[in-house]
Amino acid sequence: xxxxxxxxxxGTRLRPLTLSVPKQILPVxxxxxxxxxxxxxxxxxxxxxxxxxxxxxxxFLDRYPDGTCAxxxxxxxxxxxxxxxxxAIAFAARAAGIDGRFIAVNGDVLTGLDxxxxxxxHASRGAAATxxxxxxxxxxxYGVVPLDAxxxxxxxxxxxxxxxxxxxxxxxxxxxxxxxxxxxxxPGRRVSIExxxxxxxxxxxxxxxxxxxxxxIDAGTPEAYLQVQLDLLAGRLGNVPxxxxxxxxxxxxxxxxxxxxxxxxxxxxxxxVTDSVVMAGATIESGxxxxxSLLGPGCVIGEASALSDLSVVGDGxxxxxxxxVAAGRLPGPDTWPS
Length: 338
Ligand code: GDD
Ligand code: MG
Description:
Layout: E1 2-6, H1 17-20, E2 27-28, E3 31-32, H2 33-43, E4 48-53, H3 58-63, E5 68-69, E6 72-78, H4 84-95, E7 102-106, E8 109-111, H5 115-125, E9 129-135, E10 143-144, E11 157-158, E12 169-177, H6 179-183, H7 193-203, E13 207-211, E14 216-218, H8 222-233, E15 249-250, E16 255-257, E17 260-261, E18 266-267, E19 272-274, E20 277-278, E21 283-284, E22 289-291, E23 294-295, E24 300-301, E25 306-308, E26 312-313, E27 318-319, E28 324-326, E29 329-330
Parallel strand pairs: 1-4, 1-7, 4-6, 9-13, 15-18, 16-19, 17-20, 18-21, 19-22, 20-23, 21-24, 22-25, 23-26, 24-27, 25-28, 26-29
Antiparallel strand pairs: 2-3, 5-6, 7-12, 8-14, 9-12, 10-11
This protein binds guanosine-5'-diphosphate-alpha-D-mannose and magnesium ion.
């Protein structure tokens, strides 16, 4: 099995963290997100991954120079310009010479989905495309996918207005695609799989859905990106990793709970870190309180500061002593490129 993994998006909802790296390089439990995604694919029987790169491709090339990730062989396809989801899948599949059935996944989804079962169900139905589906409370952020009694997809509605979704089962971002799907995607043009390709295939009755209750989260927002790490610590994704990297320094008077602390980070005296992510090389000075927040690599949080409610601090940012922020982004949107 070969899989195309989409990792070329700008990750705008996770800014400022994604100004310096693509979101799939951000750590999930002190390991880059992409490694957890690829590891799961490998365990499901995928032997080769093709990374579909656009935004900051070197971040991946530099980290995995030998063409393997989590023990799975990995190739790269760098788009000359953003081609949107279907354009990117087709570009990568063609670049890698894929000429048969293959898997495509959104690279920001952490899931326990049974990919081999999806593959088998696709084959047994003779579908052109098979989409994994997961139930969510608010489908308006996702692609909504109602099924008929035979499991055939009746409609594909990307990001419907709140309250209008006909189903709570949404596109989980893992597909099995036949090579024929590629033929319909015109090269060199932006094409969305959600807004263009799937709706057209649904008209032909060629798309099936497979519902799954397996663990699933799209880590593309600060809230979800934090939640997946809390779930990891709670054992909901299998083995619980060590929350504190062995090269981090945590003062004995500090209290760190429900949080990951990355390599070389320093947590000073009387600091309280609760339900948060402290990335590699970050420094938290004395008396700081961090709650439900994300601290980027190498940032410095000045003493007696208090950050809470999904505050997000960017790579290398210096937060002055005594800063009190709830739900803040540091640096703020006024400094981000448009
Ligand atoms: N190479 C490349 N080029 N990758 C891209 C591009 C592009 O132009 N645009 C987005 N991506 C990548 C992102 O990096 C991400 O891994 C994946 O494609 C999906 O993009 P998101 O921006 O995260 O989409 P979303 O979360 O709003 O919605 C998608 O995922 C939901 C489930 O996680 C849709 O597929 C929804 O239908 C789905 O429910
Ligand atoms: Mg996403």
